[in-house]
C-alpha cells in the first residue's frame, strides 16, 4: 500500500540519522482503504510520517493520538497561520489544495487574542440557535426529501438525502434559499475533493457569502449572518465573509458524510438490523461509532512549526506543515479503548479536532442534532431499507480530507 517517491523532497532524517522516504497521500488506492495506509505508516514511521500531498508537496502526517493532542495543546509551537509555511516559494499558483492552505483572514488562520475574538463571535451566533426549533427544521427538511423519492422504491441516499439535508438546514440558518444552498453544496464538494476545479469553486462560494452579507445588512433577519453583523465584536465585512465560509464548509460536507457513513454502517452491520426495522433506538450509538471508525473529516491541514523542534523522533523544521491525521489518531492502538468505542459511549475521539482551533462550541452539538434527526426520520419513514448493491461495491470519494461515499443506493417498499 505504501508508495515511496523520490521527488525534490529527498527524504527526512530520523533520530537515528537514517533518511526516510516520504509517502504519497493521494490517489484512488488511498481513498478506498485509508485505514490500511494509516496502519502501514504507523508501523513504518511511528507517530509522525513524512508524506507528499497532491503535486508531491512535502508535509508531515501525524498519526499518533497523543501527538495530535500535544500539537493542538501547544499553539505557541505549532501555530495555525499558514503564512508560516516554508513551502510557499515552491508551490504552484494553481495548486489544488490552495483552498485549504491559501491564507485567508478567517478565524481558521487567526491566532491568540484575535482568534478568541473571532471564534467567540461565531460561537455566540451559533449558540443562539434554538435546539428544539433546529430539530423541528431538520425533521421537516428530512420529511420533504423523503417525500420526493419514497414512492420510487429506490434511492441514492447520498444524492437524495445525506447531502441535501444539512445543505438545506444550514441554508435556513444562514438565511439562504434552497436553490442557493444546492449551488453552494456543489461547489463545496468540488473544493473539498481537490482537483483542477477546486480553486474556482472555492472562489464562487466566497463570492456568494459576500453577496449574502450585503443582503443581510439591508434586510437583517433571525439568522447567523445577521447576528454576526450585530455582534459586539464588530467584525468587518471581510472577516464575516471568511468566517461564514468556515461555518458553511464545516457544517455541510462533514455532516453530510456523517449521515452517509452512519447509514452505511447501519445497512451493512448486522448489529443494527433491529434498528432498521424498529426505528430510532441505536442511531446515537451508530453516529458515535462512525466518529471513531469512519470519521467524516479524516485529515486536516493543519499546523505549522514555529521553530525547529522534535516530535516523536522526527526533526521538524521551522515552517514545516503538519497534517493532523484525525482518523489515524482515533485508531491509534496505544490509546484505543478496549472493546467497541461506539458502544461504550467514549467521546475522547479527535474527530472534531482539539484545543482552541478545534470545532467551535456548539457546532458539534448542532451537527449531531441535524444528523440524528435526519436518520431517525428516514428510518421511521422507510423501515425496510436495504442496500441495492453489495457492501464491496460501494465507492468512496477520492479525497484525502473528507471520508464519504460517492453513492449509497438502496431499495425499499414504496410508500
Can you characterise this structure?
The protein is an alpha+beta fold. 49% of the residues lie in helices and 11% in strands. It has helices at 28-32, 34-45, 65-72, 98-101, 112-127, 131-149, 157-162, 164-174, 178-193, 198-218, 224-230, 237-268, 273-278, 283-293, 326-330, 341-344, 363-381, and strands at 12-13, 19-20, 23-24, 48-53, 57-62, 78-79, 154-156, 300-305, 309-311, 314-316, 321-324, 386-387, 409-411. The strands form four sheets. The protein has a six-stranded mixed beta sheet. It has a three-stranded antiparallel beta sheet with strand order 7-13-12.
Number of E-state strands: 13
Can you tell me the residue ranges where pLDDT is under 50 for at least 5 consecutive residues? 1-11
Give the mean pLDDT. Answer: 88
Number of helices: 17
Fraction of residues in β-strands? 5-15%
Radius of gyration: 21 Å
Overall, the morphology is globular
Helix content: 40-55%
Largest sheet: 6 strands, mixed
Q: Whole-Å distance between the termini?
A: 45 Å
Strand order of the largest sheet: 3-4-5-11-8-6
Structural class: alpha+beta
Query: What is the H/E order?
Result: EEEHHEEHEHHHEHHHHHHHHEEEEHHHEE
Amino acid at each position: 500500500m505504501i508508495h515511496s517517491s523520490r521527488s525534490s523532497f529527498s527524504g527526512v532524517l530520523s533520530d537515528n540519522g537514517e533518511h526516510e522516504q516520504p509517502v504519497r497521500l493521494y490517489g484512488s488506492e488511498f481513498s478506498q482503504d485509508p485505514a490500511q495506509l494509516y496502519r502501514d505508516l504507523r508501523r513504518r514511521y511511528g507517530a509522525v510520517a513524512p508524506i507528499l500531498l497532491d503535486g508531491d508537496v512535502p508535509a508531515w502526517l501525524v498519526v499518533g493520538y497523543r501527538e495530535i493532542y500535544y500539537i493542538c495543546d501547544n499553539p505557541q509551537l505549532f501555530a495555525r497561520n499558514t503564512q508560516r509555511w516554508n513551502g510557499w516559494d515552491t508551490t504552484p499558483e494553481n495548486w489544488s489544495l490552495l483552498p485549504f492552505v491559501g491564507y485567508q483572514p478567517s478565524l481558521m488562520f487567526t491566532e491568540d487574542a484575535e482568534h478568541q475574538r473571532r471564534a467567540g463571535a461565531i460561537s455566540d451566533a451559533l449558540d443562539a440557535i434554538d435546539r428544539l426549533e433546529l430539530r423541528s427544521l431538520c425533521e421537516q427538511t428530512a420529511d420533504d426529501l423523503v417525500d420526493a423519492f419514497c414512492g420510487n422504491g429506490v434511492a441514492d441516499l447520498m444524492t437524495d438525502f445525506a447531502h441535501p439535508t444539512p445543505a438545506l438546514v444550514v441554508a435556513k440558518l444562514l438565511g439562504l434559499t434552497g436553490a442557493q444552498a444546492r449551488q453552494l453544496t456543489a461547489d463545496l464538494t468540488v473544493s473539498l475533493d481537490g482537483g483542477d476545479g477546486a480553486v474556482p469553486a472555492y472562489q464562487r462560494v466566497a463570492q456568494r457569502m459576500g453577496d449574502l452579507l450585503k443582503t443581510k445588512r439591508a434586510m437583517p433577519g433571525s439568522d447567523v449572518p445577521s447576528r454576526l453583523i450585530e455582534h459586539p465584536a464588530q467584525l468587518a465585512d471581510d472577516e464575516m465573509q471568511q468566517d461564514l465560509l468556515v461555518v458553511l464548509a464545516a457544517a455541510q460536507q462533514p455532516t453530510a458524510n456523517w449521515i452517509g457513513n452512519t447509514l452505511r454502517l447501519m445497512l451493512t452491520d448486522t448489529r443494527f438490523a433491529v434498528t432498521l426495522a424498529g426505528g430510532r433506538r441505536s442511531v446515537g450509538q451508530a453516529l458515535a461509532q462512525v466518529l471513531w471508525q469512519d470519521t467524516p473529516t479524516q485529515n486536516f491541514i493543519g499546523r505549522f512549526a514555529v521553530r525547529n523542534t522534535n516530535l516523536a523522533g522526527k526533526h521538524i523544521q521551522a515552517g514545516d506543515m503538519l497534517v493532523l491525521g484525525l482518523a489515524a489518531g482515533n485508531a491509534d492502538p496505544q490509546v484505543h479503548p478496549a472493546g467497541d468505542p461506539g458502544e461504550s459511549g467514549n467521546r475522547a475521539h479527535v474527530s472534531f479536532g482539539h484545543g482552541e482551533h478545534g470545532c467551535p462550541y456548539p457546532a458539534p452539538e448542532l451537527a449531531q442534532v441535524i444528523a440524528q434527526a435526519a436518520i431517525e426520520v428516514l428510518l421511521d419513514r422507510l423501515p425496510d431499507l436495504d442496500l441495492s448493491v453489495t457492501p464491496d461495491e460501494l465507492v468512496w470519494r477520492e479525497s484525502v480530507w473528507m471520508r464519504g461515499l460517492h453513492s449509497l443506493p438502496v431499495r425499499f417498499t414504496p410508500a
